[in-house]
Amino acid sequence: MPFQFSAPFLRPDQEPLPPGWTPDDRTAFLQQQKWARIGAEAIHSCPAKAVMASGMGFGLGAFISLMSASFAYEDPLLRSQIGVGSRTTTQKTMEMFKDMGRGMYRSGRGFAKVAGLFSGIECVIESYRAKNDMVNGTSAGFVAGSILAYSQGPRAAIGGGIAFALFSLGIEMFLRREPSDDD
After folding, report:
1. Scanning 69, 116, 133, 140, which has its CA 20 to 30 A from the CA of 182?
2. Is 100 part of any domain?
3. Structural domain tally of the chain?
4. Owning domain of residue 142
5. Which DSSP letter does residue 67 get?
């Protein structure tokens, strides 16, 4: 006689159906679960995290450039000195928007490169170490800073790595601080 209080063991495709379900509904539900699991595994992979960070970095860089571009244009007194009075308002506006777009793209591209590189390296380090602590971000900051400054020589690569590692450590310490009890 089996133990009375144990749950029945059924394979996932043989468990009883909820009221109103047909066997076709079970097949569709199992297929949905399979694709949800595949999607969750894909989104938590290091390449996907790097691509998402690059996209968010591009958006942030473009937004910061857009905000700073609103302060970058000359004042009316300076305009008369540089000879822009011969153009129409439409031409001036088109030039301003083109310049703003170029700046947004350039800044967004730089932010995307830094964010994707840092995020990808941090994910690889975290996967390798199987820990989620401040060492991952600091190490990733050193490696990413070194890669970004590599073209300037070995001294600049080490300096860039140290600077980015210290910046990453500061961010990690801020994000992982204990909340105050004054709430």
Report:
1. 133
2. yes
3. 2
4. 131-176
5. H
